[in-house]
């Protein structure tokens, strides 16, 4: 008969005294304590992952619950929601925020008033956001508020397939939406400056649209790129350095199915190639601690644009120290940003 001896059982010799266990009681206590510590560590890590996913899910539900047609519901009291139709069957949502000094005058005004306001001579920014969420994201509202406070109009667009905009998002479709908005603004703005601000994915949309405008014989008066990448294909094909990246890859529905309308889309948006054709004044804003698009990307964009335009005056790079902790979305918090923007826009008028 065979008997299996478990580690917890005592081992006896056929005759004589009891054989001493291979481990001392003190060693067993240390081992047991180590096992418990490791168990609690794993439980803590699992709880942290679940909490992180839950927060993202709750935020997603919260922002999806916002009525984008009513920006005043979230405190934007000098902003009007507009719907435009760049193509048949496609409707895109846009928030038009007027300069802050006109906020009292804007109360209760309709679309006709906002359209006429575009011709008041104030510079105008078309704001193009990144590849998740919609125009109500806090950092996007933050940029709109900064631009408005400086005295500019802001038109924040949700591309087709984003927010409450209908249609299927594709590279061609995104650019079509921006081209339509540009021409819509130009038809109402007289001689006002019309600039574009592209953040993250929006930087690629901005430069690609700028090239298409050149082909039409038009151009933006100025371009600002924030947290810009060299091209969308390079960026989407690499594993982003983020403390929970592995978690998103293990459970891709958390980040991609819920937050990314461009999942599985074939994007190029070659900012590096576009900048070789663009001669529009350009300012690049990039945080040294950007955790999604490395600061080196901003530096390479600067070198490419500077070489193409052969000018130190028309191409500027503004870097934000890592100690400020702005990461990828926090540049709107910088107290010096309004002056940086104001100086750039003033340079466009000379």
TrEMBL record:
Residues 123-254 form the AB hydrolase-1 domain. This is Monoacylglycerol lipase ABHD12-like isoform X1. It comes from Carassius auratus (Goldfish). The chain crosses the membrane at residues 43-63. The gene is LOC113057126. GO terms for cellular component: endoplasmic reticulum membrane. Signal peptide: none annotated. GO terms for molecular function: monoacylglycerol lipase activity; phosphatidylcholine lysophospholipase activity. Pfam families: Abhydrolase_1. One of its GO terms (biological process) is phosphatidylserine catabolic process. Keywords: Membrane, Transmembrane, Transmembrane helix. The keyword Repeat does not apply. It comes from the Eukaryota. The keyword Calcium does not apply. InterPro entries: AB_hydrolase_1, AB_hydrolase_fold.
């Amino acid at each position: 008969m065979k008997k299996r001896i478990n580690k917890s059982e005592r081992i006896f010799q056929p005759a004589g005294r009891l054989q001493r266990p291979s481990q001392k009681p003190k060693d067993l206590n240390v081992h047991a304590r180590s096992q418990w510590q490791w168990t609690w560590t794993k439980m803590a890590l699992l709880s942290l992952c679940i909490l992180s996913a839950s927060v993202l899910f709750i935020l997603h539900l919260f922002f999806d619950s916002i009525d984008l047609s009513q920006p005043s519901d979230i405190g934007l009291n000098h902003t009007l929601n507009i719907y435009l139709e760049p193509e048949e069957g496609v409707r895109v949502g846009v928030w038009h925020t007027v300069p802050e000094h006109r906020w009292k005058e804007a109360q209760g005004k309709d679309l006709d008033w906002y359209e006429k306001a575009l011709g008041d001579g104030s510079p105008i920014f078309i704001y193009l956001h990144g590849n998740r969420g919609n125009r109500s994201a806090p950092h996007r509202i933050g940029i709109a508020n900064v631009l408005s406070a400086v005295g500019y109009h802001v038109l924040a667009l949700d591309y087709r397939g984003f927010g409450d905009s209908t249609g299927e998002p594709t590279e061609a479709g995104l650019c079509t939406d921006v081209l339509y908005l540009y021409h819509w603004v130009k038809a109402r703005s007289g001689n006002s400056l019309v600039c574009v601000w592209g953040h993250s994915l929006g930087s690629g949309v901005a430069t690609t649209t700028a090239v298409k405008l050149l082909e039409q014989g038009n151009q933006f008066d100025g371009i600002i790129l924030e947290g810009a990448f060299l091209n969308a294909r390079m960026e989407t094909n690499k594993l982003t350095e983020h403390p929970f990246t592995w978690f998103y890859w293990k459970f891709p529905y958390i980040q991609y199915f819920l937050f990314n309308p461009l999942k599985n889309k074939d994007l190029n948006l070659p900012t590096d190639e576009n900048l070789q054709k663009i001669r529009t004044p350009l300012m690049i804003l990039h945080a040294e601690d950007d955790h999604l698009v490395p600061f080196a990307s901003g530096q390479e964009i600067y070198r490419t644009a500077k070489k193409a335009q052969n000018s130190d005056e028309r191409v500027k790079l503004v870097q934000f120290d890592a100690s400020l902790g702005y990461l990828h979305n926090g540049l709107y918090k910088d107290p010096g940003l309004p002056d940086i923007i104001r100086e750039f826009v003033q340079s466009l008028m000379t």
